[in-house]
């Protein structure tokens, strides 16, 4: 079993679940290890043992969510015909439809996972943003900078939902921004 998949009900699994709850409600900066550990019914020592730090725990939570979202994005793009498209053809309608589908599926997944704030916040590291990398792979070289803009709109939409906005109108606004 890969190390990042904790045994259900284990201290590590409870910490991940508690962390997602706290990071989603208060953000990374607003969460503290004492509250996360208490919600998981473990000591802070257990948190440090399994993850090394609050940032280590956040990175595990976020990396898992990003992987789950990018998997769905790739599936959505393929369903929209991306496997038959030629990304180096600027303005290719199939590529545009694939990107649109992928971004909307990513939004819906983040909402379903109750991870709008976690995924809406900028990544906590200088590594490549996996969401942006996924979108960029669907675009021609002439449009590669659009990936950052689309992901910024996606993150903004997620933060609006995390801030209490109703999902449907935020999704409609995102659809407007990434229209065909």
UniProtKB/TrEMBL annotation:
Residue ranges of domain HTH tetR-type in the record: 9-69
Record field: transmembrane: none
Residues annotated to bind DNA: 32-51
Coiled-coil annotated residue ranges, if any: none
One Gene Ontology MF term: transcription cis-regulatory region binding
A Pfam family the protein falls into: TetR_N
Top-level division of the source organism's lineage: Bacteria
UniProt keyword terms in alphabetical order: DNA-binding, Transcription, Transcription regulation
Name under which the protein is recorded: TetR/AcrR family transcriptional regulator
Species the sequence originates in: Phytoactinopolyspora halophila
Lineage: Bacteria, Bacillati, Actinomycetota, Actinomycetes, Jiangellales
């Amino acid at each position: 079993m890969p190390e990042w998949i904790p045994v259900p009900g284990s201290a590590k699994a409870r910490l991940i679940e508690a962390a997602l709850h706290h990071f989603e409600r208060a953000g990374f900066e607003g969460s503290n290890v004492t509250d996360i550990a208490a919600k998981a019914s473990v000591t802070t020592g257990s948190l440090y043992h399994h993850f090394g730090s609050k940032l280590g725990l956040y990175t595990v939570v976020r990396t898992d969510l990003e992987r789950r979202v990018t998997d769905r994005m790739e599936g959505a793009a393929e369903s929209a015909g991306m496997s038959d498209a030629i990304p180096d053809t600027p303005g290719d309608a199939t590529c545009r439809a694939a990107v649109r589908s992928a971004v909307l599926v990513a939004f819906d997944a983040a909402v379903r996972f109750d991870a709008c704030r976690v995924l809406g916040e900028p990544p906590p590291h200088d590594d490549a943003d996996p969401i942006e990398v996924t979108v960029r792979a669907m675009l021609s070289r002439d449009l590669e900078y659009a990936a950052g803009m689309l992901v910024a709109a996606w993150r903004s939409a997620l933060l609006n939902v995390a801030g209490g906005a109703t999902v449907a109108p935020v999704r409609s606004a995102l659809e407007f921004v990434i229209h065909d």
